[in-house]
Amino acid sequence: MKKILLGISSSIAAYKACDLTRLFVKAGYSVHCVLTENAVHLVTPLTLETLSGNPVYTETFARERRAMGHIELKDDAALMVVAPATANVLGKFANGIADDLLSTTFLSVLCPVVIAPAMNPNMWQHRAVQENMAKLKSWGVRFVEPSEGAVACGDFGYGKLAEVETIYRAAVDVLEG
After folding, report:
1. Pairing relation of β-strands 147-150 and 156-160?
2. H/E segment holding residue 128
3. How many domains does the chain have?
4. What stretch of H or E contains 136?
5. Which of 67, 66, 81, 44 is nearest to 166 (CA)?
6. What is the CATH number of the domain that holds 130?
7. CB-based burial of residue 173 (10 Å sphere; 0-12 exposed, 13-18 middle, 19+ buried)?
8. Hey, what long-range contacts does 38-46 have (CB within 8 A, 24 or more apart)?
9. Residues 72-124: tens digit of each pLDDT
10. Rounded mean pLDDT, 52-76
11. Which residues constitute the domain of residue 117?
12. pTM check: above 0.90
């Protein structure tokens, strides 16, 4: 069974990670979720544990685990998917900032990475975000770019998380391609 690391950051679209988890599990993949500290306010670890059948990781130095989370998580991972990925997460990844479990896990994996950003359209268009994305692409990171539509704050434009099925297909293409 192939292991997928599913990174979830603090976009309002975090709830869609539940549907993505269900699709991966239904297809026979082992899903291990890594949430940022703020993502736990948008989707609960218990929900993701129930859907994935695996522990959910939220802290770099969790008391209940002896091994270092980011090192343990990378073992045998076939793919890392980050959905949704905020502008903050893209900036951390592109600049080697490792100050939480998700960013340290990103820096430690040797498997392919697929990122599905989600943010306000103005943030998506910002030069810093576009440069961070270009840098990550140059490293071989694959992107499922956001779609155009209304976002949570009511603004309209590119920044809405791609459809869950689109993210799923992109991930499976990498895994099975």
Report:
1. antiparallel
2. helix 127-138
3. 1
4. helix 127-138
5. 81
6. 3.40.50.1950
7. exposed
8. 38/9, 38/10, 39/8, 39/9, 39/10, 39/14, 41/10, 42/10, 42/11, 42/12, 42/14, 42/15, 43/8, 43/14, 43/15, 43/17, 43/18
9. 778 899 999 999 999 999 999 999 999 999 999 999 999 999 999 999 999 99
10. 72
11. 3-176
12. yes
Q: Which amino acid would we find at residue 80?
A: M
Over residues 155-167, the pLDDT tens digits come to 899 999 999 999 9
Q: Give the CA distances from residue 21 to residues 5, 18, 24, 95, 168, in Å, rounded to whole numbers and listed in that order.
A: 10, 5, 5, 28, 9
Among 18, 33, 111, 153, the one annotated catalytic: 153
Residue 6 pairs with which residues in a beta bridge? 33, 81
Cα–Cα distance for residue pair 174/121, rounded to 1 Å: 27
Name the amino acid, one letter, at 114. Answer: V
Q: How many other CB atoms are there within 10 angstroms of residue 93's CB atom?
A: 25
Burial class (CB in 10 A: 0-12, 13-18, 19+), 39: buried
Task: Count the neighbouring beta carbons within 10 Å of the beta carbon of residue 14.
Answer: 24
Rounded CA separation 85/7 (Å): 8
Residue 18 falls in the annotated catalytic set: no
